[in-house]
Amino acid sequence: MSIEIKVPALPESITEATVGAWHKKAGDGVKRDENMVDLETDKVVLEVPAESEGVLKEVLVKEGDTVEAGAVLAILEPGEATGGGSDDDSDKPDDAADDDDGKSEAAEKKKSSNADDESPPASPAAQKLMAEHGLKAGDIDGSGKDGRITKADVQDAVSSKESGASQSSDKASEKSRPAPAEAQEDLEKEDRAAISATQDERLEQRVPMSRIRQRIAERLLDVSQNTAMLTTFNEVDMKSVMQIRSTYKEKFEKDHEVRLGFMSFFVKAAVEALKRFPIVNASIDDGDVVYHGYYDIGLAVSSPRGLLVPVMRDADQMSYAEVEEKLGEFGQKARDGKLTMEELKGGTFTITNGGVFGSMLSTPILNPPQSAILGMHAINERPVVVDGEIVIRPIMQLALSYDHRLIDGRDAVLFLRTIKELIEDPARLLLQV
Questions:
Q1: Crossing angle between the packed helical segments 151-163 and 124-133, to the nearest 10 degrees
Q2: How many CB atoms sit inside 10 A of residue 2's CB?
Q3: CB under 8 Å, gap of 24 or more: what pairs does 340-343 form?
Q4: What is the set of domains in the chain, with CATH numbers?
Q5: pLDDT of 316-337, one tens digit each?
Q6: How high is the mean pLDDT of the chain?
Q7: How much is the pTM?
Q8: Residues with active-site annotation
Q9: In this structure, are residues 322 and 264 in contact, taking their beta carbons and an 8 Å threshold?
């Protein structure tokens, strides 16, 4: 009896999803619990595993379709996952086998004939170059949208022809089977390469915004319209933290099997500052102020799908090693598309580090319903005055954006200054002074 593969129950507050990449096609064999298709929501990517071993009989939705919970995605025929018909012709009469061979040969000829009639489209520049070198469209793998052949594709084919080794099929195979963690990133790189290669042809490409990008746009617009966001700045001398890190990083990594970075210091400093200024850890709910007696720190991480903010819960109870380990886990899950809804929910305060990309200064945008966000930036050596002398120190710019409806400027400035003092004198973190 056939099995309907349906959209699983979606996380709370999510009503629909977009069909992402199909990892199986009709006729393919699948094993139990093997992922068949990805569903993209505005927060996470959900995998739809096979409920039983069998053959994927029919695919009912295509990539890009919008589906709701419970919608049927495909039909699975239970049984042995052969992925196709039997190869055993021992029970067939010889003439039947010959007849099959004849049919197969005819089908191949027809397929070959149709291939020339259904050649992928080529740009004008590509057509001209193909004519000059006696190439056919069917001999070239197009890297443009919908398989469009670009001038760069023809140039590659010409080079391969001259060298006597065509690599087009290998390239196509590599493009069709990217590693799961890099699939979206590879696709974006190919899009950029295709557009770059055809700039002289004045082409345009229109693609729908992903659900997560739409959600990011909605939230950013909501922040700008519904909060009184203000940003205050300061700078911090990173010399002491860098000395500690240099002195103990090897032993720290040996003992805890995780690298010692700067983020754990800032998480700990932020928690201590939040304890001293609880209004920064609060949020507005309708006409009420909600004070949170816990410290759930959101850490902004980049992913192929966009910026995500997983939450490090009860950060005040975590050691430096646990903070670094959790941060590494979040980063890997974000790259693999494995972050769960539970890991992305909640949070009382957020830290974002644009410094890893070289940002000198920015005004980070609030992550509602939180009332404040700390922005870290690149570390640069600068001349500063210390005890009346000019010295060179590693300086990082800090930015604190906050909702002025709830947090006064005084509290915001003192909160940021507290973080500065704790980072410049890390012993205060240990002594909590």
A1: 20
A2: 11
A3: 340/44, 341/11, 341/12, 341/14, 341/43, 341/44, 343/310, 343/311
A4: 3-78 (2.40.50.100), 86-115 (no CATH), 119-201 (4.10.320.10), 213-431 (3.30.559.10)
A5: 999 999 999 999 999 999 888 8
A6: 81
A7: 0.63
A8: 404, 408
A9: no
